Amino acid sequence: MMKKRSIILLFLLIIVLHVFLYVRYKAPGRTHPDERLITDFTQHYYSLGVHYRTTWLGIPTLENPCDMWAIQEIICETRPDFIIETGTYKGGGALFFASVLQNIGETGKVVTIDIKPRIEDAAQIKLFKDRVEFIEGGSTSEQVICRIKERVGGQKVMVTLDLDHHFDHVLDELRLYSKLVSPGCYLIVQDTAHNGRLLPKTFGKGPEAAVEVFLKENRNFQRDKGREKFMLTFHPGGYLKRIK
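Below the sequence we write its predicted structure tokens.
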């Protein structure tokens, strides 16, 4: 009798435990403990401003190393002829892409766009001179888009968006540059962690909201969450693979 009662109590305890875990971590609006840890660390990492002091070959990148590693894996796997980057900053990101292309033995080049050239230091590096083409102008302007289409037409193309992070601009970029991405290649929307996703809200809707709208209207792309395997990422949900 006692044994039977103990089994019943143990069974009830297990049910209570499962209910607790569901309410604590699985129910809508709740956060899994691993996700909470990732969010806390990402916020702490960002608050330290380490990305402002992260360089490639001496040139600032404004990236975290986990995202850089994930992107080099993508480049290695897909081997694009062109990588289009909006948001050059000082050229560290473009220089990093060029380094990966060079080291996998491909002839690919980087086309990077920004409204203000700040690439004086990067432009002194031979690899940048050989592999990177800079276009000054707005990333969504008709003139710039025409130049890019002429340059990369018929080639295998990957795109990364890292210029203006406001919702309207990112959505415009997504709609324009998605057409240039080759099947099997990636469209990376950077800094989706902003505005409450992982990092504090700064200026209303941003890249994450733009991605949500874009994916509802364009079925050629899907998120590749596997690219977030290192857990620290500034681009959660922003690694978009063209599947058709």
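The helical segments are 2-26, 33-47, 65-78, 92-103, 126-131, 142-152, 167-177, 207-217.
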